[in-house]
Amino acid sequence: MDNEDERRRFISELWQRFEQLQAWAVENWPDKEHPLSSADFVESRKEILGLRNPAQAPGGPPADREPEQGGAQYIDLNPAPWP
Questions:
Q1: Are 38 and 21 contacting, i.e. CB atoms less than 8 angstroms apart?
Q2: Does 75 fall in a domain?
Q3: Biggest CA-to-CA distance, the chain
Q4: Does residue 46 sit within a domain?
Q5: Is residue 77 part of a domain?
Q6: What is d(CA 66, CA 18) in angstroms, rounded to the nearest whole number?
Q7: Mind listing the pLDDT tens digit for each residue in 7-41?
Q8: What span, in angstroms and rounded, lies between the C-alpha atoms of 41 and 24?
């Protein structure tokens, strides 16, 4: 449980620092014709949130589970050809 508490504290502090960095970047972006917005940081937020549970991280490799563990019973490795 200690490890989980450490993970939560780390992610909380990382999130706060990221928010500060994002605000600084938006304010100090040199190209005023093409300003940054919070939408420019969406993928970074997803990565940080993925640290909460690495198994559920976006874009992460799917967990290979056996069928009795809820995994796929059949995985089609040869997709059908395009008609």
A1: no
A2: no
A3: 56
A4: yes
A5: no
A6: 38
A7: 889 999 999 999 999 999 999 999 999 999 989 99
A8: 13
